[in-house]
Design a protein that fits this description.
Helix content is 34%, strand content 27%. The protein is built from eight helices and twelve strands. A hairpin with a 4-residue loop joins β11 (190-194) and β12. The relative contact order is 0.13. It holds the Pfam family MdcG.
Length: 214
């Protein structure tokens, strides 16, 4: 039902549970998210997660020293008011620095991508997440081998203009760093895969087979 990087808006009861489970120093952030009706972000499921629950995170803006933080908690599916896919790149790009926007628009026009990480959170909350060293994290969803090859070539070209990073998401939900995929070499290689509940190594050939089966 939920995929990593999905956005989740909680009910009042859901926020009550998040507040109760947060550390004392995190209560103000939970209250702000609730008050502003900002979404939490789906993360990899905690080990032993109860049935019909989802693991969520609230990432807050980096501190002045660059330190990042996140409140991690679990919520019942019954306490999810609504949820959506990660933010479309074209919608997130308005929050990017002006110098990035022309290249971002060109990229978004050529390929449907979704944004997560600092750019997405800045667009969703209006708070300052992007720094001079931030990446633009994107999700790429190929439907077959041809779109995988074309999309990777497009991302590689635009990486010369933008600090791009992110993941390929295969039809099964398995996600791989697109930079790692490009650098992995022959199809017999294995790559690090992240999915809803685990991190593992998998042969590239197995992932390519999921495109053929889709």
């Amino acid at each position: 039902m939920f995929c990593r990087h999905d956005l989740v808006w909680l009910t009042g009861r859901g926020w009550d549970a998040a507040f109760a489970g947060a550390a004392a120093g995190q209560h103000a952030a939970v209250d702000q998210w609730r008050r502003e009706d900002w979404p939490a972000v789906v993360r990899r499921a905690d080990p032993g997660l109860a049935p019909l629950h989802v693991s969520l995170g609230i990432p807050w803006p980096p501190a002045s020293d660059g330190t990042k933080g996140r409140i991690a908690f679990n919520a019942s599916s019954a306490d999810v008011a609504r949820h959506s896919d990660a933010l479309a790149l074209e919608d997130a790009s308005a929050a990017a620095p002006e110098r990035w926007r022309p290249a971002l628009k060109l990229l978004a026009d050529r390929m449907p991508l979704r944004a997560y990480g600092s750019l997405a959170m800045q667009a969703l909350t209006g708070q300052t997440y992007l720094t001079a060293t931030s990446d633009i994290d994107v999700l790429f969803f190929p439907t077959d081998g041809d779109t995988l090859c074309a999309g990777l070539a497009l991302l590689e070209r635009h990486a010369a203009l933008l600090p791009l990073d992110g993941e390929i998401v295969f039809p099964t939900g398995a996600a791989v760093s697109w930079k790692e995929w490009i650098g992995a070499g022959p199809v017999k290689a294995r790559v690090l895969v992240k999915d809803a509940g685990a991190v593992r190594l998998a042969p590239m050939a197995d992932l390519l087979a999921t495109l053929e089966a889709a």
